[in-house]
Amino acid sequence: MAPNAKSQYERRPMVGWYNPARLVRTGVEVVLSTIFGSHSDNRRFDALTATDSGIYDYSQPTEQDGSFWFDYAADCGDGWRSTYAVAWAHSQPTIAHGTDHLKRGGLLILGGDLVYPTPSFRQYQDRLIGPYEDALPHPPAPPRQLLVLPGNHDWYDSLKAFRRYFLSQHMYSCFTTKQTRSYFIAKLPHNWWILGVDLQLTHDLDDEQFRFFQTRLDNDIPQNANIVLCSPEPLWIKRHGHEADLNTATSIPTLYAELERAIGPRLKACIAGDLHHYRRLESQDQRRIMITCGTGGAFLHPTHVLGGVDPNGSICKRAFPDTTSSNSISKQNLLFPLRNPKFGLLYAFLYLVTSWQTGLYVGLKTDHISILEIGTTPPSFTEFSEVFIAGFHSGILSPIGGLLYLFIFAGFMFFADRSSKWFRILGGWLHAFAHILVGFLIYWLAAYWSITTLGFAPKSIPQYLTAGLIISTLGYVFGPMLFGLYLYISIRLFKKHPNEAFSSLKVDNWKGFLRGKVDSSGNLTLYYIGMRQIPKHWKAKEPDQPGPRWVPDGDQFTPPAVIDAITYSSDSTTWAESKNELVDR
């Protein structure tokens, strides 16, 4: 039986990706899951224990006009406010679009990364199941059917929690599950089919999964079928900001590319999450579209870094947010310390340790070595070169200090964006040098203040304590400021670090989902329903009112509206945009 979401879940804020404790925990879990995931693939286990064919039949129209409606969302379980806002938008019986009314789909597809940062039973309950059970209508409305795909974040516990919640045929108050595998095939009316694939952590299908789809494509899915391929990641583009080239359909032979070839001209659309924005690409012959729709609740990703033309020649026709807004949002990295206050603790420690190593031999005078006492030299531009040489001399006298500075340069070069070798080397080196320079200036100021101004003896306990307090405090402030400036310059001028620069902002606006309609003529229309600004405040609904448990408190938000609409015509076998009163994008 499903847990009672109303009494057993916590409204969690958006994940603080730059919380030092979170960074360590997530890093360890990612490393372990990557190591063990490459040797133990649970998708093969699911294939052996599956109790059904993996094909789920939704081929009967659900509306009187002969149409069938479904919804799609991905990258959902981050903060409660953003996740619930999308679930609340799902719950609306209809959404007006000109003279049309887009009906709530009876089938909901969740396309990956259902919980952040790492999965557990509690995380799923708090960040996904609870908000959706509160948002979606309760009986007498029938529960919706649910099909799910796991993303890389769902795989960080080897799919343990995902399997319990979504592959065990649970019935929740808001939806029911049928799946016994982490991938599926959905048969829709009028020869439309949806294939959902699981890419695990390897960005590819496994052998058993590939054979599953190949067999169904040969034996169950007609050659004149229309297929929509759903995957947790947009493998049809070259990922910006990552070292891996995921343009597998044209560069690296993979089972995913083999699956696309097996589908052939039947493939009409590809839909994926993972990148937290909406972006629609269209092939030059207008016979295939590629949609990235990862706006189900996670922090926003930029659109301006991707350009207007895909490596395969497809053209970007719509983006949400638009590239101008996306570029403008990146300015918020200049406020990095305010948005990520705990991250300053890391720099306070780093600046303190490096200053300690720098100061070990400062002021040393022997028969062979004489190093200036920095604390007696007033901070000024004219004294900088002499003082910097003294600090450098002191730093390299200690083997530990030399290794520390080497570690700093290596660490920042490792962090630098890997999509460009020159940026990784030059950008990482300059970033490291900037922190060392700022840290040295802070050390100089702290040493002078504690020794000359306050009169403490060099290397005495009061001098160490006073200088350490000054260094830690200023490091807490200026270290994150410099880091935020690096991210801003990288994303604004070089279009690098899109993930790092935007995860720091925790933007919960620009959210939405896809709504699909197969009409009585066999045409498929995909509507992207978005909210530029989500409701920030919620209140409990009146006890006698049906619908979601929480409703917006006030009108300071953008109601769900159609941002993009495109239709595949069964007559012309091409996609065409709908211009029926789209909202301002």
Task: Give a structural overview.
The protein has 585 residues and is an alpha/beta fold. It is 36% helix and 17% strand. The strands form four sheets. It has an eight-stranded mixed sheet, with no helix packed on it. Strand 6 (144-148), helix 5 and strand 7 (175-177) form a beta-alpha-beta unit. Helix 3 packs parallel to helix 4 and helix 6 packs parallel to helix 7. The two termini are 42 Å apart. Residues 1-7 and 239-251 have low confidence and may be disordered.
Summarize the structure.
The chain has 15 helices and 20 strands. The protein is α/β, with parallel strands linked by helices and 585 residues long. Helix 3 (80-91) runs parallel beside helix 4 (121-135).
